[in-house]
Structures are given as C-alpha cells and as structure tokens.
Amino acid sequence: MALKKKKKVIKRKPAKRKPAKKRIIKKKTAVKKTVKKGAKKPVLKKKPAKKTPTQKSGKIIIKEAGKVIGKITHYFPQVRAAVIKLSAPLNTGETIKIKGHTTDLTQTVTSMELDRVPLAQAKKGQEIGLLVNSRVRQHDIVYKI
Questions:
Q1: Residue 31: how many CA atoms within 13 Å on its side-chain side?
Q2: % of the chain with per-residue pLDDT over 70
Q3: Over the stretch 40-74, which tens digit does the pLDDT of each residue have?
Q4: How many domains does the chain have?
C-alpha cells in the first residue's frame, strides 16, 4: 500500500474589523424662516409648544369625581374580596367607586379586615381586605365619593 502524503493546512487569522464611523446628527432648530411679501430679509417665526397630557411617572392620570384613596393589589374571586393599599383613611359605611379599564363599580363599604380582624376604620398605608359586589382587577383605582 502506498502511503498518502498529508496536506499541509494553513490557518488564516480572521480579518480585523474596522471601527464604525461616528455619525454626526444635526438637531433641527425650533425656528422656521418665512418671507413676507415685500420684505427682503426672512422673518423668524417660533413654533408653538407641544401640548402633552397630564402625566405622572409615564402614566396618564384619569381624573375622576372624588378623592383617590387607594389601589387594588389583589382579588380573591371565591370570597369576592379585594386587597386595597390605602393612600387615605377609610371608614365602614362610606361610599367608594372602583374604576379600571374594564371595571366601574360603586358600592358602600360593609366589611373591612386587616389580618383577619374586622375593622371599622382603616388608616393610610394599610393593606386591607374589602368585600366587593363584583369582580375587580389589580391596578384598579379606588375613589371616595
């Protein structure tokens, strides 16, 4: 048998990439040049400021009748109870409105609990359990009417 000669393999180094060129972006100015009839020099005209909706941390605030007293953090469908993080005090017997994308509910507060203990009055900052008449969802806003 004849011996086969081994071919010599030459490894090539990969080509180095050239660094990308920096692009210079020119900002458009807020001044527009217009020429009036009979005038030789252009007149500078300012653009009106853009109107933006009322915003808070990137979210649009929905203005509703009543004072915002909290936000729904959880809902238990079997017992029809909602967990509310309060930003204002709440008492039993007061009328509240729960408003969200698909929720619009008005009811009086009949039963509140904090750690399975019934409450007549809840303070700002507490997370309470509240019986509700229909389904609510997380991030729904609770108003006092």
A1: 4
A2: 66
A3: 665 566 666 665 555 455 554 555 568 999 999 99
A4: 1
Residue type, 12: R
Q: Per-residue b/e over 11-29, b at no fewer than 16 CB within 10 Å?
A: eeeeeeeeeeeeeeeeeee
Residues forming a β-bridge with 32 = 45
Cα separation, 129 vs 64, in Å, equals 23
Is there a contact between 103 and 123 (Cβ–Cβ < 8 Å)? no
For residue 59, being part of any structural domain is answered with: no
Residue 81: inside a domain: yes
The rounded distance, in Å, linking the Cα atoms of 113 and 121 is: 10
> Model-level pTM greater than 0.85?
no
pLDDT at 66: 84
Q: Which domain holds residue 84?
A: 66-144
Query: From the first residue on, what is the mean pLDDT of each consecutive set of 10 residues in the chain (145 residues)?
Result: 69 74 64 58 62 52 75 96 97 96 95 95 96 96 95
- CATH (domain of 94): 2.40.30.10
